[in-house]
Amino acid sequence: MDRKGFTLIEILIVLAITAVLSGLAIVYSHVGQSQISLSIEESKVAQLILEAKELSIATYSADDATCAYGVQFNLASSTYSLFAYNAAASSTLYPGRPICPSLASTTASFDTNAISEYAGGSWQIHTAQGVVLDDPQNPASDTIQDVLFYPPDPFTLISFDGQTFSGAYTDPPAPTGYVYLSTVDGSASRTISVNSAGQVSL
Fold it and tell me: Which residue in 62, 22, 71 sits closest to 179, CA to CA?
């Protein structure tokens, strides 16, 4: 009775095909995972911006030393933070109420020393692994560095340089700003827009 087996060449061909298919599966799995991480990060960032807006509306009737809330983006470290914008002093007429700087003074000169972490875990949140913010070396001119929501409406103030802010009422009005997210390899990207009316769009 003859026994037929595989030749060495046939075995090598099967191993080569298996290696190629395994490599493709790993690559596509990595790409898919990066795109899922990108979508999740997009939702998280948009939700944090909306949370800052909601907190600002609630702040108007609260007796605390917070004047506004916002989100700050650090492109160099690919982190973002939900911050509270605090008043320098309390009102003598209404004890417990903060003396908040006017909108005009805030847009002209933003006091970065007056910001603080809103709550534990809301400061310097790193983007997901494989996801980065806009190119820190060459950011787009419409990249948001800070967005601040100022009660009571709230007014939406956008900064593209981290120092000066503009809004719907400033001259010129603030253009729509964007938060750019992409995978490390640049194969996929997402954009979140915030306009001067406070509308957040994915």
Answer: 71
